[in-house]
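FAQ: What does a ligand-bound record look like?

Like this one, built around magnesium ion:
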Amino acid sequence: MEKDKLKMEGNSPPLLKVDNLSKKYLIKKTLFKKEYFKAVDNVSFCIDYGEILGVVGESGSGKSTIGKLILKLIQKDSGKIIFKGKDIDNLSKSEEKKFRKDTSVVFQDPRTSLNPRLKVYQIVEEPLIIHKIEKNKRKDKVVKAVIDAGLDETFLNRFPSELSGGQRQRVAIARAIVLDPDLIIADEPTSALDVSVQLQIIKLLEKLKNEKNISLLFISHDLNVVGNISDRIIVLYRGKIMEKGKTSDILKSPKHPYTKILFESLPPDHPSHRKDLTAIPEIEREDIEGGCVFYHRCPVADEICRKEPEMKKFQNREVYCHFA
Ligand SMILES: Nc1ncnc2c1ncn2[C@@H]1O[C@H](COP(=O)(O)OP(=O)(O)OP(=O)(O)O)[C@@H](O)[C@H]1O
Ligand SMILES: [Mg+2]
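The answer part, i.e. the structure of the complex:
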């Protein structure tokens, strides 16, 4: 398994390549008309082996939808998702099985994502049963995953209700790593936890990345968390990428007006800081057809912004703005 991962490193293709991904949801249907909401609009990005890509954006910006599309929990409208060099739409039965094994997910709230009727052992064992791992190999794998997630064997006999929030999230992580995946979609994995516990979970995810070479799509509305954990960041607004680049570059010099508002006033190393992403006020401007999606909240928008900007490409950075 480790060899399999290492073989793909270096100059080989990224672990995950997402090209022009789009998804709209049907929100209203009458006899004459269907109304759709564009949740993800032409989104492209890569994740390398052993890399953490942070996805940040306000509520409703399409973060979870991207995660669900990658995991094939919902159908995309258009675009391509290439995992380990293969289009996930065209997998054979055995490739599909391997894809399911190589990808896993950790959700925000471990109270609802763990089955309350199962003990920790059964919760972590379940993916092994689904993937038909022989019974005599399962116990060792469960114990190892639980220990790797920072718990010990005494937890195996407990129910989720007998655990703290942080411990429950460790169980969710143990379950996510038990099949030795290459990619974990972590959808707000720390948002339901106390600040002190958040930091422990972040450290655990970083450790898993470093020791097991697991890649993460780390979804969060918490800029501090994303800034701390991610190698690269994409900033989403209404389903579109506003800016994409290396975390250190973006923190040093954000280029998109939205990213500037988000990250410029962020005090470094201050875990208790929270910035309300929806606090950016609307600026009174006449409605436009098409144009930049950030037009009505952008402090520097001008006539040219009535036209949709292209994604401008710089070295290690892409920015959706006429003024970048
Ligand atoms: N099944 C659905 N049907 C209709 N609209 C949906 C559906 N799922 C999501 N949406 C809408 O699509 C948009 C994007 O949703 P998504 O859950 O991806 O956002 P998000 O960035 O994860 O938000 P949050 O931070 O609140 O979790 C939202 O406006 C949401 O209301
Ligand atoms: Mg979400």
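Follow-up question: can I read anything off the structure? Yes, for example: The two ends are 43 Å apart (CA to CA).
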